[in-house]
Amino acid sequence: MKKLLLIVAMLCVPAMAGAQGMMHGMKDVKDERTVLNIPPKMKVMQKRMMRKHMATVATIVSLLAEGRLKEAGRVAKENLGTNPQDVKRCSRMAKMAGEPDFFRLGMAMHEKADELAMHADREHRKMTLKTLAELINTCNACHERYRH
Ligand code: HEC
User: Fold this and answer.
1) 148 near 35, Cβ under 8 Å?
2) Can you state the angle between helices 100-121 and 125-145, rounded to 10 degrees?
3) Which of 15, 37, 73, 103 has a CA 20 to 30 Å removed from the CA of 135?
4) Poorest-pLDDT segment among 13-17, 27-31, 102-106, 134-138
5) What gap in Å lies between CA 59 and CA 62, rounded to an integer?
6) Is-contact 113 76, C-beta < 8 A?
7) Fold of the 39-147 domain
8) What pLDDT digit, counting tens, does each position of 54-74 carry?
9) Domain parsing of the chain, residue ranges
């Protein structure tokens, strides 16, 4: 028993040292992204929409895995594609925050989803997958630039 405790203790020491090292390294960590200046309630709504976007991406991946390309395209178009309502929403948010780049990055995502829908509808699997990666990178581009 004593031996076991000793072994556990020995295993924990490096882990604790590692954690301490990490905390130490965190002292200089700064989030350099631009803070979006929008009201708290709007942030809640935006994040809700974002979680829905993530769920949509998962649905698209599942449908592609099953070879249901046309359906994947429809899901992309309907949930992430360019539609007047989303364009207006993006534009309003960008104006409120005084961040034209937010609108530009948002539109890049919607337009990439349209492109994915087009390839999927033509059942071009390779191009659809390539565009899916590009679509995810349009999400990443905005996340790199802005935060709440
Ligand atoms: C135009 C900008 C923009 C685009 C494009 C964008 N996001 Fe976001 N997203 C944000 C911002 C801003 C946040 C809030 C980050 C924070 O909490 O600081 C966010 C947060 C999130 C979150 C976290 C939600 C939560 O509950 O904390 C997820 C998940 C997410 N985005 C998924 C996506 C996915 C998937 C896409 C692409 C299909 C995407 N986003 C495209 C701006 C964007």
Assistant:
1) yes
2) 170
3) 37
4) 13-17
5) 5
6) yes
7) Four Helix Bundle (Hemerythrin (Met), subunit A) (1.20.120)
8) 999 999 999 999 999 999 999
9) 39-147
Tens digits of residue pLDDT in 40-57: 999 999 999 999 999 999
| Interval between CA 139 and ligand 1 midpoint (Å) | 7
For the CA of 109, the closest atom of ligand 1 is 5
CA 22 to the chain's CA centroid: 26
Ligand 1 pocket member 69 (CB < 6 A): no
Instruction: Say how far apart CA 65 and CA 35 lie, in whole Å.
Output: 37
**69 Cα to the center of ligand 1, angstroms:** 25
